[in-house]
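Form 7-S
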Amino acid sequence: MEKIEISTEFIKLDSLLKFAALTGTGGEAKYCIAEGMVSVNGEVCTQRGKKIFPGDRVSFAGNELEIVKA
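Output:
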């Protein structure tokens, strides 16, 4: 599991996928989220603007991310 540090209170899901370099563009991130390819805390999430907080876990394309406060 990869730890992703954020310095803000939260990060939006589509921004997280770009920040973690799991997608190349914001459009690609939005598409993957809309197609149900992303899970947050074990549940499929289709909200691209979902707020992700430290302690949350995101799964996408075989990658497991844990969000931590920087």
